[in-house]
Amino acid sequence: MIELVIVLAIIGTISVIALPKFAHADSGRRLSASKNTLIADIDYAKLRARTTGKIHVIKFYPALDKYIIVEGTTISRSAVILSRDFTLDPYKIDISRTNLGGDKTAVITVYGELSPGFNVGLADDGVEITASFDGIAAVGVTIATTITTPEVGTLDIQP
């Protein structure tokens, strides 16, 4: 009988130690998937810019946990080639920050180079990871926006 109590005490102790580690495992998978998706989407846009010979623009909407990629320098509904919403499955994470400044845009040149380099913070349940992208100096492209933030919330364009 005493052996049973000792075994139960050991199992209880191990459970208390291991449980917090498993609590963030799902969060870690979602964050990792989100970061990999962001990297793949930007790589796709770089390849597309080189292939088409057209500038592409990435615009982040951290308040909506969404970003879009457009072909050309006008951010309009018809120019959107990709829209990613991180509030949906399988992601369900937050875009917590980006260091792109007020307009939250980065340009991909016709040579597939990002301008400027930037970081994006992805967060879930108090855990945050950063996706960093190297870039070149500002290329001096003027971005025109004709799409409203509420319209962005209704876009569902995947590559």
Q: What is the name of the CATH architecture?
A: 3-Layer(bab) Sandwich
Poorly predicted residue ranges? none
Q: Tell me, what's the shape?
A: elongated
Classify the fold: give the CATH topology. minor pseudopilin epsh fold
Average pLDDT, all residues: 86
The largest pleated sheet is described as: 5 strands, antiparallel
CATH class: Alpha Beta
Across the major sheet, the strand order is 4-2-1-6-7
Number of helices: 3
Structural class by sheet pairing and helices? alpha+beta
* Spatial gap, N to C terminus: 63 Å
Helical residue percent? Answer: 25-40%
Number of domains: 1
Number of strands: 10
Strand content: 25-35%
Describe this protein's structure:
The protein has helices spanning 2-23, 25-52, 149-152; strands at 56-61, 66-71, 74-75, 80-85, 94-98, 105-108, 114-115, 118-124, 127-133, 144-145. The strands form three sheets. It has a five-stranded antiparallel sheet. The protein has a three-stranded antiparallel sheet with strand order 5-8-9, covered by helices on one side. The protein has a single domain (25-152), classed as minor pseudopilin epsh fold. With 159 residues, it is an alpha+beta fold.
List keywords for this structure.
single chain; 159 residues; alpha+beta; minor pseudopilin epsh fold; 3-stranded antiparallel sheet
Question: Quick summary of this structure?
Answer:
By secondary structure, this protein is of the alpha+beta class. The protein has a single domain (25-152), classed as 3-Layer(bab) Sandwich (minor pseudopilin epsh fold).
